[in-house]
Structure to design on (207 residues):
């Protein structure tokens, strides 16, 4: 009797395990189908980016001739997809360069961007630019007098694609903004004379 009971219990256990695996495989198949459908038929488009404002909160020469900076930047992002949303991860990096010299850095806040949504993100940047010959501020002033101060803002951020409540895939987005501003004087409103942002989204590249 006990042997028959054990065989029935084992059989029920095996059926339960098989059902669990079948459900798991079905779920994977559904997610794969959704991903395939959206990536191959919907042709998702990458978000677009535009620098909305650039403010100088601090820019001063230090005793060691380095330059301490503190900027506040607003970036506007638009999601052009009607069915696909994006989740911007916490592990991001934003840098500001003047003549290839890193002068400030920070990170994007993590946020969720729904389909067809426009989001304005505020970024705080600070740092100390190496300035061995002590001429950085003089160079900035000279650039200002020549018509504008060139800056490069680089953004690197992990983004997860989602549809409804299903998260599909994470990829990396890189954005480079070439700027020309009229001034970097502390406390003065900075006017952006040139603003060209180019996204480089790895996932959306053709294979």
């Amino acid at each position: 009797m006990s042997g028959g009971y054990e065989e029935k219990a084992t059989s029920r256990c095996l059926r339960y395990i098989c059902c669990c695996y079948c459900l798991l495989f079905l779920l994977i198949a559904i997610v794969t189908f959704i991903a395939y459908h959206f990536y191959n038929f919907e042709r998702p488009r990458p978000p677009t980016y535009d620098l909305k404002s650039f403010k100088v909160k601090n820019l001063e020469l230090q005793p060691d001739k380095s330059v301490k900076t503190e900027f506040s930047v607003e970036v506007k992002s638009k999601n052009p997809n009607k069915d696909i949303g994006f989740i911007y991860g916490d592990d991001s990096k934003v840098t500001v360069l003047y003549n290839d010299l890193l002068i400030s850095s920070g990170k994007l806040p993590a946020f969720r961007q729904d389909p067809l949504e426009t989001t304005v993100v505020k970024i705080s940047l600070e740092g100390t630019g190496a300035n061995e010959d002590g001429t950085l501020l003089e160079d900035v002033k000279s650039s200002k007098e020549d018509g504008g101060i060139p800056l490069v803002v680089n953004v690197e951020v992990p983004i997860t694609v989602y549809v409804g409540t299903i998260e599909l895939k994470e990829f990396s987005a890189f954005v480079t903004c070439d700027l020309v501003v009229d001034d970097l004087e502390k406390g003065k409103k900075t006017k952006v004379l040139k603003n060209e942002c180019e996204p480089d989204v790895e996932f959306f590249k053709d294979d």
In short: The longest strand covers residues 166-181. The helical segments are 2-42, 136-145. The chain has a mean pLDDT of 81. The CA atoms of residues 61 and 203 lie 42 Å apart.
